[in-house]
Design brief:
This protein is mainly β. Helix content is 5%, strand content 55%.
């Protein structure tokens, strides 16, 4: 098993291709772009992805650099799985896309699933169609769903592209319910 640290994230992988986790160990920032009025930005969560290209890992979703990105590496649908340490009231999920440079790697539909366990996910709404000429955040606004797990599903890309590119991920909301005992969140998920 390989463990490395880069830009404040921990990457854990079984090998370079199969399973990677990015952990962001900060709690909550004040409200920031791209979503105003949706509570604070949640910054304490673990991200896994259905697949990833060995040079474009899930940690790139969290590094706040739109020049880096996560890239899938298999058949569709692709998914970004988000594990929160508490039950949160989620107000919005934002993904940074650049359709101009990424073309057929850009998602054209985003679905949001939520629940308290990955095996108990429910779909929120009908999904969001991504604009054809988009360079920036595409936001899925929710009506305060409460959960500890989220999944963004990419069922298709523009021009029937096979792999997907997402440049950033941001989640907004507030803690709904905290556990009585605090524990090491990263080790619990592993």
């Amino acid at each position: 098993m390989h463990v490395s640290q880069r830009k404040g994230f921990v990457l854990v992988g079984i090998d370079r291709f199969r399973f990677f986790i990015a952990y962001m160990g900060e709690f909550i920032d004040e409200v920031s772009a791209p979503v105003i009025g949706c509570g604070a930005e949640i910054r304490d969560f673990i991200v896994t992805c259905s697949t990833c290209h060995r040079e474009h890992l899930p940690a790139n979703l969290l590094d706040r650099d739109p020049q880096t990105y996560w890239k899938s590496d298999a058949r569709m649908p692709h998914s970004i799985n988000i594990f929160l340490p508490h039950i949160y009231s989620i107000k919005a999920v934002s993904l940074y896309l650049n359709v101009f440079s990424d073309k057929d790697y850009s998602p054209n539909v985003l679905l949001l699933r939520y629940g308290d366990h990955p095996s108990e996910m429910m779909q929120y709404g009908q999904g969001v169609d991504c604009p054809v000429n988009k360079k920036g955040f595409v936001t899925i606004y929710t009506e305060g769903i409460t959960c500890s797990s989220l999944q963004v599903v990419i069922p298709s890309n523009f021009e029937n592209g096979r792999n997907s590119i997402v440049r950033e991920l941001r989640i907004f909301g507030e803690v709904h319910k905290e556990p009585e005992k605090t524990h090491n969140f990263l080790h619990t998920m592993l």
